[in-house]
Model the fold of this input.
Amino acid sequence: MSLAGILMSLIGLFWIGGGTIWLFSKRRYRLRQIPQFLGDLVGFPVELAQSIWGRGGVPYALLLPNMAIFGLFTFAPMILNFYVSMTGGSSIALFDRPWVGGANYAEIFDCDVSIFEPKSCSNAGYNFWTGMFNTLWFVVIQVPVLCVAALLTALVVNRNIKGRGFWRAMFFYPVMLSPVVIANIWNWVLHRKGALNEAIGTTSEALSAMAGASGFDIVVSVIMGVILLLVSERALRASGDGPSLGWTGVFGLLLALLVTWANPTSIVGLPGSFWLGCALGLALYWIVATGQSFARAAIIGAGILSVVLLLTIQFDAVFDFGRYRPVNWLVTPNTGWPFFWLVFVFCWSHMGFYMLILLAGLQAIPNDLYEAAKMDATKPFRAFWRITLPLVMPTLTVVIVLSLIRSFQIFDEVYLLTGGGPGRETFMVVQNIYEVAFTNNNPAYGQAAAGSVLMAVVIAVFTFFQLWITRRQSEF
Amino acid sequence: MSRVARFLTRTAGNPDKAERFGIGDFLAYGYLVLGVLIILVPVFWTFLSSIKPERAVDSFDTRLMPYSQITAEVEGEGIKTVWHYMAEDGTVTDVFKAGPTRSMTEVAPLDDPQAVIEVERTRLEPAEEIRVATENYLDPLLKRNGQENFTFDIYLFNSVFVTVVATAITLIINAMAAFALAKYRFIGRLTFTILIVATLLIPSSIILVSLFFVVWSFGIFGSLWGVIIPAAATPTGVFLLRQYMLTIPDELLEAARMDAASEWRIFWRIVLPLSLPALSVLAILSVIWRWNDFLWPLIVLISDPTKHTIQLGLTQFAGEFDTNFHYILAMTVVSLIPITLVFVWLQRFITTGIATTGLK
Done:
């Protein structure tokens, strides 16, 4: 019989047998009081504590089971990690493990050049540092993307919209799904012959066919011209002072699209029209949002620029995508797609949770502030920057820390979606720990524990760095 | 139609200071609809694919409806798949293939199996009907057609056992700890609170290896208790319940003490029933965590197939990837159903509960 078995049966005997005798010696129970008796029996140790030490002993008895589990299964492993990381061999019995000191760490740090070039490291070091840098990359990309998406969604759901409960629930739904289900769903969608490739293929073929028709260029130019006219007119005609922010946003998007299509940087032989377009659109939005005095002039100027661009665009060339070749999203190496889809799926499945927390933070902001800002004719953008963001900052900090710790631990989705592949492109550090300790024929527990300790150090550094930054920010 | 028109042109805010249904609202609804589409389309697509027959799944049939090819019993030939053959003059006959598929294929009409003719392959089209492939679901669930290894009943029992027992233990011991922290003044209260906060910041995956040693030396490795016990105490639960119990007035407790109720009875008969809203939120959270848990069960339970939970059982399937995609999809949908039902039923509790506690 195992240690736990003996322990459990002793405790059970004491609890049920002793408890029954003790309770019956103190109280009388009638037959219909059985539920009450059972309730008392569950709390028998607490009552015992009260009768021995008085009321002062009760809180300790109440805390005991919870703290015992914390102590045994969270704090003890935390300390034990250091010990295990200094032992070698593959024995499971703790006292059977030979002491090797820092050898496990030395092996991980055993690199010819430096840890920043994992290929020059020993085998263990290569696996660990590849996983670590992939994870760091993932965290650095994932956390901002997740937080911005969650904040944006929370802001939209926090508006005065119909069916807020429905939208909120819909965005939360993926959080309920298990990683296995998520991985199966996305595996199916992202397969080379899956729905996504099929949808893209069909759309691009249809567009290409349309672009091949005669007169397509002129028709699209006219339509785009009309849309631009309408949107800019809407933006300029807005009531109140200054152009309408929402319409300017749409106009900025259109402008970015036009610049991308017209590709003006190709005249001087440079790439980057897309980024130029984004920069122009954002600049326009910023000018209007901050209420610059030349906002109207800027919109008119952008309108003229877009008409000039429109005339240069050959739409039948823009929409001629040629033949679409299906991409094997999760398997093709050196494309970045597996990593992209990992970030996407992680966002997809976790965004709703953080959105809910941010939504609670947003709803805690008193409405008076916005009304006061409205009295002072504050621009919505400025109100967001000066009221919403500072007041939601504490919640946002919680969200950032939580998502940071969460993203560092990413394992389930990656393991099931890509298995760390292609090659080692999405190989994360937890997967390294898991594989070293549990899937090897010759498990290297010491190695894995050393990896865990290093990972804990990195997480702690990141968390404190992040908290330090936000502390400085809130002082202003 | 008029309702749609009214919706599209409705005003935001109350009628007194009515504003037009502006571009901001359109953008907001556009964003929401797009987001919900991105969330729901993959799930629906998985469901639609899971009711397609094996052949359609394997050939990645991307049509929405579950088409399957008609089969017919041909005299002296056995069961054959049916094809439509369109002759040069436009007449269509139902045929079956009498020989191997080449550019010129031998086919014969269904009603006259002896009249074999050679036709161009491009003139043949599969004769299809819409049929829900229930066998995707029934084969694994009833262990038919070589799916004996997928013991759904055992997986389900294990998952339900882990979820129910762990949730019960979590509720009781977390409520006890929360009660102590909320309603008693004692030496070390701050220390205990800080210790519980600290556990919130210890990620479970960095204690993976040594937790394995602890669980193994307790002798619960490889049993369901090895999954239930280590995560039974949750810092989230303690905080959630403590915050709620702080709102219960002390006078109630004092009144009960006047009537000589023991401290445990005060907890069991007064505090627990009063904190039912917070308890239900924690119960829902705990059910979600336990039902979806993957990494720790994978380590503890993987070696013994009779101890697998549903999540582990599903990955066993994915091992034989190429052949059994239709079973994978169907079982994915099956494991999705309970959590979806719970969600539809309790979504208001869940979303407001998490929003007010702000922790996971």
The longest strand of chain B covers residues 92-97. The domain at 149-357 of chain B is CATH 1.10.3720.10 (MetI-like fold). The CA atoms of residues 240 and 357 of chain B lie 6 Å apart.
